[in-house]
Amino acid sequence: MNRRILAGTHLLSGDEACAEGALAAGCNLFAGYPITPATEISERLSWRLFDVGGIFVQGADELDSLTIVIGAVHAGAKAMTATSGNGICLMQECIGYAAITETPCVIIDVQRAGPGTGIATKTMQGDIYQVRYGSNADYAIIALAPQSCQEMFDLTLEAFNLAELYRVPTFILADELIAHTREKVAIPEEVSIVSRKRPDVPPGEFIPFKVESETDVPAMPAFGEGYRLPVSGFTHTETGSPSTEYAVQNSMVRHLVNKIEKNVDKLTKVESLYLDDAEVVVLAYGSVARVAKSAVIQAREAGLKVGYLRLITIWPFPDHVIRNLAGKGLKTIVVPEMNMGQVAREVTRAIHGKAEVISFPKPGVEIHKPKEIFDFLRRVI
Amino acid sequence: MNRRILAGTHLLSGDEACAEGALAAGCNLFAGYPITPATEISERLSWRLFDVGGIFVQGADELDSLTIVIGAVHAGAKAMTATSGNGICLMQECIGYAAITETPCVIIDVQRAGPGTGIATKTMQGDIYQVRYGSNADYAIIALAPQSCQEMFDLTLEAFNLAELYRVPTFILADELIAHTREKVAIPEEVSIVSRKRPDVPPGEFIPFKVESETDVPAMPAFGEGYRLPVSGFTHTETGSPSTEYAVQNSMVRHLVNKIEKNVDKLTKVESLYLDDAEVVVLAYGSVARVAKSAVIQAREAGLKVGYLRLITIWPFPDHVIRNLAGKGLKTIVVPEMNMGQVAREVTRAIHGKAEVISFPKPGVEIHKPKEIFDFLRRVI
Amino acid sequence: MNRRILAGTHLLSGDEACAEGALAAGCNLFAGYPITPATEISERLSWRLFDVGGIFVQGADELDSLTIVIGAVHAGAKAMTATSGNGICLMQECIGYAAITETPCVIIDVQRAGPGTGIATKTMQGDIYQVRYGSNADYAIIALAPQSCQEMFDLTLEAFNLAELYRVPTFILADELIAHTREKVAIPEEVSIVSRKRPDVPPGEFIPFKVESETDVPAMPAFGEGYRLPVSGFTHTETGSPSTEYAVQNSMVRHLVNKIEKNVDKLTKVESLYLDDAEVVVLAYGSVARVAKSAVIQAREAGLKVGYLRLITIWPFPDHVIRNLAGKGLKTIVVPEMNMGQVAREVTRAIHGKAEVISFPKPGVEIHKPKEIFDFLRRVI
Amino acid sequence: MNRRILAGTHLLSGDEACAEGALAAGCNLFAGYPITPATEISERLSWRLFDVGGIFVQGADELDSLTIVIGAVHAGAKAMTATSGNGICLMQECIGYAAITETPCVIIDVQRAGPGTGIATKTMQGDIYQVRYGSNADYAIIALAPQSCQEMFDLTLEAFNLAELYRVPTFILADELIAHTREKVAIPEEVSIVSRKRPDVPPGEFIPFKVESETDVPAMPAFGEGYRLPVSGFTHTETGSPSTEYAVQNSMVRHLVNKIEKNVDKLTKVESLYLDDAEVVVLAYGSVARVAKSAVIQAREAGLKVGYLRLITIWPFPDHVIRNLAGKGLKTIVVPEMNMGQVAREVTRAIHGKAEVISFPKPGVEIHKPKEIFDFLRRVI
Q: Considering the entire predicted model, what is its pTM?
């Protein structure tokens, strides 16, 4: 029996499903510091990693945890950490470090009500910008927003694959509701796993950060394999040497940003309903999307020309998907979300005035009710 | 002689001018951890604060430094820290804590090339989003971008005033170029200082977080004065008690965000030139704005219908100013900045498709040359 | 009025008296981290230092606190920290650093029951060896044991003087009983203060660690005065340069140890009673000494040939005083102490078999009662 | 093939032999922070533990490392850390915590020249008292001093056995010379391993700190086995509940100290030569003992009545062995050691004036030469 893949149908919480997704993806090291509502991920991996010969470390704190993950990845591991937004604060330095060193790693953010300590046991979708922009200067990351326990499994697995494919920190933007809900999760016998791109030249010929184009991703050996693998937070040339030259900074930053941003087409995952003739589109993500979809179906049944668009990929932000909404009679996009309108801002930017964007924010603790969204749609139309 | 206000005209570096601005504003505690290119601020305050009976602390690290600042403010001080983007990473938890506790404080970010360690001695404008969005969940801050040593003095002083007026962390988005340039700085005999709003009721009647409306700011006593002053990172009621209620979370977060965002009119400072008939507006801020202005003047001399808009207030983002640009023949907004287009994104969002926004990014190390911008404008037109 | 010296007679706790002793001695910086039963020292200095233009810092932790003290001293301050044995653990690295850099500083250890966390609110005399031997390799320190609130004042003042005279970390071995007892403390109008030995040559001729003999103490300038003042934890020559030579290590370590150990005569303070014809001597220190003295007086009244010796100076250990007890009919030394016999071990070593040493240990929480000691003496005799 | 026991004869450095001893003893977790001259222990275990399914963690620092070790032990592991005296400073809090929680663990101290940073690459025997007395209040530990690479293997294995047998932190007092010397090390096919004493009652009847007598050691389950296993640094009753009672403190401390001190007979290991008719005994330990033995043999050959005693067990200090030296014509004990006379002090105490004790100290960097000791002996006689 494959202890890594818990094939079959299980009743799992979102946190538990996330842990299983990591294992199925080949995660062999987890380092984290406990924080509600992400603690159950650590808890499960503390014994499940043991089952598969992996390593579980409770770091001294969040800084330490992501540092350990980064080190492990360079030693050849697939590694992950999990925290909440408060912990993301403490990881910001290492997130930038992971970005500039092109370290594939997975960071689970189970969002809770904030700002500050906020409310440990209540939900929010407040960290949308935080995971994208909290470290210094320009870089890019990937972030996926699951809406169910099943997606906690599926998207965590996917996050590992994307992290490896793009050598980039990849986030799961979960939230407390999904983390603590318990649902049926189907785990297949086999999963598709992306392996790290390995050098195809002998050590003597290897150039660590050499890329074909700015959207390409360099091959990555592991420590101890004989290849040079410089790991430095300094601006560096393709050989990994520190540099203070403009040309180096320019090409490095453009590479770090564009290997993600210019691959946005490939990276984008959305789900949609009734878009063809919709005058109003409800755009949502994560747990709120479930409620929104139910409200949209109800609105259609009531004869309202409403459509539904769910973002699964939050970062890179799928501007092209938003732009494509315009021009088919669309008048309004309603964005219900559990924050003060973070994604609504992005939609406003992306739609270029081609439709009105109406934010429908609730800043955490309580999720929108289907009726609230339905009533809101009625008022809008 | 008033040791606090170094009246007269001086040749000062931007960092030195910043330190003098803090002193003029009444800063009596500085806590920081050295980092290039912000170290000279610490250095100067280490002896200048001594002159005025203030306190200088080198924190154990950046977390410690902002923690000390927050504590000092609640003890009645006006307090500041200074760092670069790497240090901002480490302060993100305390930035959110300062936001939720409504702690007036000033944070100087002398931006340097990144991401990660980047290049300690080279410039960038990469932390625009970082200072706004790096902590968890929704909150708001103020950020000002100086373009000269004179403004390092003026805006640091202003930052203290705004911090007190709005009880909010207020950032100076400086950059290495301005920090290390040495220019004439005129310091007046007298400056205008905003004092903290004090309780106007006796201690027994004081409600710590009571506000008249969501854009109002509560009065703030100091520890030891007999008033209750609960300081907690938890979601709290107007009495400062922790709560897990939606109503409390909702009104608290709306207050934290809207006391800043809805006062954007009052908070906005811009500088402009030739906007009336401009077909192309160059929008810039900080050190790049100086170059941009020079290019715009040159373009006007060459007969091009070009205008110039400098944002001094970066956050809250002045959407209304951007919107007002539209409709007078404006076709294009060009945004030269030393990052991959962070403010250009915001302008795109705010302009609502009423003009084309063209980002002209240089990701640090080297500032745009006037001729580069001039040539760029020619191509655009 | 001299705010530094609170002249007059006051009712003070031991911790409060300690704080006043520090102020009278010229302490102008305190850095500490709160811990029962030493917290009241911090508390009082937090406002009393303010009165006299000094600086109070709550460190991020104990490591930070002693680090700040050491830095302040090299900047010219007289500085102190206060903690309990648990905090001493965390200061051990810096204690060694202070020793090798010959940094005069005062460390108050208000002992509480241990080991480990032990009991925060109960007394013990358990840290006798810890303050002497807890850092790596050979060095020396001074430690004084007060028995009353008055001595908390007197000996803290004395500790500052000795620290300056010998450039050495100097400890007060207080305990919870004395710290929290409230007694009459008489503070004189004037106190005798030892100033730091300053260079008597111009900066160009100054050799930082030059001594006349191994028991001599080098002159000490402050940062910013123009003198070279290398401060390094490395083995160093008299110029302060690092060295790996045996000759340098040998002379440096001998100097560090012998400037204290060979000055033991000058450093020793004891109190005694009835020693001339005593067959049994009760040797005690700190709070237990008060009880012991009372038991000895009672024993004399009962006709027993008992004497009393109180060690005020614990380190350097006054071997010569112990040796001098022998040969006058002395048969036995009884050592009541609130630990498992730490000083009894030292007395055993020092007496060289010339008398029997009987340990009378109580490992904290409860002090010996006079009757317990009296009964013990009866049994011994 | 047993990957745990590297049976056969190998050329190993002392650090490498130490790592192998740990593996042979069943160590399955190592946590440490690199420091010269102990780094090679970490280095070897980083891959050797991998071979045997164990866990290697580089802690965030020394505090973290010993904390991880303690946690692992309560989860059922045999665990170890390694450092130098500077790192021991930072572990002192956890050493006391391990003592009061009766956590079996092994701490390797590869001593280097100090105090302070001292000289990273030079030897010393300076931490004799530090490992015994550096944490607060009364407790006991075991410490063994190897004199060869073979003993780095043998005694590390022994240290694990003693740690388990007595539930106590057990130290190896190695030094830089032994750590970096490379010698033949014979590793047997089979080694004798002491298993942790397990509860012999079902969980419901288990009393965690119940002992038959104060020298007895309580049984120790692991987390997750169903037994209550309270782990607290507070003074505690036999059930593990915190207490502030004198009776509890008294019996707990006596137990912690006496389970080691009163078992000193069983714990003591020494090596001796020519003691029967010796007028002068050279007492040494660790690397110096090898030199001393050679000098003693030379002295015997020269007709001097000299004996040799090597302490392998340093703590608990074998007073009884020292006392037994007296009375057979012994006049003098010479103690050559690479510190200022730490063990000489203990010998002086233990011999009770029955012989003269002469310290022959060299404070690190350079070991005594055989001729130096021989000449010293000549002068003494």
A: 0.93
